[in-house]
Known about the structure:
About 25% of the residues lie in helices and about 35% in strands. The protein is α+β, with helices and mostly antiparallel strands. It has a single domain (about 10-145), classed as Hotdog Thioesterase (Thiol Ester Dehydrase, Chain A). Strands 1, 2, 3, 4, 5 and 6 form a six-stranded antiparallel sheet that branches. It is globular.
Amino acid sequence: MAVSPEPLQVWSTVVPPEWIDYNGHLTEGYYGVAFGQASDEVLVHLGFGSEYLAEHGSFYTVESRIRYLQEVKEGAAVRADSWVLGADTKRIHLHHELFTGDRTDPVATQESMMLHVTRGPNGPKVAPMVEPVLGNALAQASDHAAVPLPDHVGRGVRTLR
């Protein structure tokens, strides 16, 4: 796997009609679907697949935050730029920016924390990643560490109090 400080561009689609809500634009739940698919493709890029899943475990998203910045219409071509902001033996910290068409400013962003889990007789358990995913995640996080963090990373929803 080649690593780079450039964002991973491993997911894109065209917004289907069923993703559109009563306001005529992408409904908030489908932003989550888009970002979930982008995260899955990042994992595939890092070496995760059906064999890894069967032998070593999976990933659970344990926290995420989406920022909705612009409306997205039916039929729009969308793509995600993805960064591995950090990784250790059990976690991967991702950031995605969603773009439409030729736009240079994102229409939405998502930050998420994923845990590596194995399935045992008592249910899922957090456990260390193994190769090739571990080495690839650490290498990509190291290369992406050269990119300044967006100012919204690590922040939650603002309180009204």
